[in-house]
Design goal:
single chain; mainly alpha; globular
Length: 61
């Protein structure tokens, strides 16, 4: 997988979640994320979006 692909997916995620500081490593972000730190039902949608981006990077497409 070219480095550019991971960068592109990360950029798309940053565009989709502009108010979030996700850092460079999405796996690390998910590991250190504290449940309950987002209000309401948006938390699961947020986490799913980040997980989906990470899975795309890991698959390479």
């Amino acid at each position: 997988m070219p480095d550019g692909y991971a960068d592109r997916v990360h950029a798309e995620l940053a565009e989709e979640l502009p108010d979030e500081d996700l850092g460079e490593d999405l796996a690390d972000f998910l590991e250190s994320y504290e449940r309950g730190s987002r209000p309401g039902p948006d938390e699961e949608e947020f986490l799913t979006t980040v997980r989906d981006a990470l899975e795309r990077i890991e698959r390479g497409h």
